[in-house]
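Progress note, sequence design subtask.
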């Protein structure tokens, strides 16, 4: 197991496999990647590079990996990536976050290649709101959700980013949808990354009141200690998870994540781009596994709680 200088174990690797996307969400943080922070969007890791680097991370005790982007399902080799990663001894949890548009026809193969579960971005059940917000078609993501549930990519989590004035009136409706579709609802607060301050101020929705209501309805409330102290509310027919990072010292205190950008840089924190560690460059220049391992260790050393009371 690898720990950072703040005693936090590093257990999760969040890998961005591309910056390309088929939707156009104005709120998207793009996992904190910008062309200026990482050089260019043109350099993408190959299938083999992603698998080799994940293997090194797993060797250091990282046992969970999530594929993200951009839209991971735009990679033509996504099935090979999933298969190669799923075959790594020691990787216990392999998941993906996707907009779900291509899940209708890919979910079955992804499951067969070894993907365990998915998170699907799902901010609205209203076709017009969905189209205005994402530039996409609701029926496609509905099909993706259904197929993911049917093939057993379990659990399917619906990532509902709450935006003031856009979808904050849809939480009840989405809860009911989660109950009926056999999914878990994840309510996410907007983070001020790769968006303008104006957009953030206009649309950031504080989930405190929602949490209070959920607490009253819940049969049980649990805290995911190794997952940023997130709260999970067990309702009679479904679960609701809250992602509330802003100015939340508890969130950072129990952060166990390391990120890898689509162009092969280790990224210790979503919020920062001044402490990246290039690993793809050295890999392409012939670095051996020990040298690559030391780059992972360096990135872990650079981890620092962003919201920190001390
Ligand atoms: N295209 C994929 C998708 O839609 O899931 C992967 C990339 S997207 C950046 C990954 C997750 O980040 C989604 O669940 C999305 O809701 C969330 N997200 C995007 N922008 C965000 C922001 N500014 N604040 C908080 N979460 C955000």
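Output:
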């Amino acid at each position: 197991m690898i720990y950072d200088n703040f005693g936090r174990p590093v257990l999760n690797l969040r890998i961005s496999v591309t910056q390309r996307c088929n939707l156009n969400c104005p709120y998207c943080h793009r996992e904190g990647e910008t062309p200026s922070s990482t050089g260019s969007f043109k350099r993408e890791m190959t299938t083999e590079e992603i698998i080799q680097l994940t293997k090194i991370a797993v060797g250091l005790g990282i046992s969970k990996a999530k594929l993200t982007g951009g839209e991971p399902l735009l990679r033509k080799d996504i099935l090979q990536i999933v298969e190669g990663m799923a075959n790594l001894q020691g990787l216990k949890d392999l998941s993906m976050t996707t907009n779900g548009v291509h899940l209708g026809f890919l979910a079955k193969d992804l499951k067969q290649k070894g993907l365990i579960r998915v998170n699907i971005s799902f901010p609205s059940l209203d076709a017009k709101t969905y189209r205005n917000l994402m530039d996409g078609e609701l029926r496609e993501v509905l099909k993706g959700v259904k197929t993911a549930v049917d093939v057993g990519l379990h659990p399917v989590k619906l990532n509902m980013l709450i935006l003031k004035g856009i979808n904050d009136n849809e939480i009840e409706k989405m809860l009911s949808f989660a109950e009926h579709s056999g999914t878990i609802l994840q309510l996410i607060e907007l983070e001020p990354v790769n968006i303008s301050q104006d957009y953030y101020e206009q649309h950031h929705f504080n989930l405190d009141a929602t949490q209070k209501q959920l607490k009253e309805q819940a049969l049980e409330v649990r805290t995911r200690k190794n997952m940023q102290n997130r709260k999970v509310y067990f309702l009679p027919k479904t679960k609701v998870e809250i992602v509330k990072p802003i100015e939340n010292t508890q969130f950072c205190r129990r952060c166990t994540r390391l990120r890898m950008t689509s162009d092969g840089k280790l990224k210790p924190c979503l919020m920062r781009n001044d402490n990246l560690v290039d690993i793809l460059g050295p890999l392409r220049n012939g670095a051996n596994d020990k040298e690559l391992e030391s780059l992972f260790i360096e990135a872990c050393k650079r981890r620092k709680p962003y919201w920190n009371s001390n």
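The pocket of S-adenosylmethionine is lined by residues 21, 27-31, 68-69, 71, 97-99, 119, 121, 159, 161, 188, 190-191, 193, 195 (CB under 6 Å). Work on this subtask will continue into the next period as scheduled.
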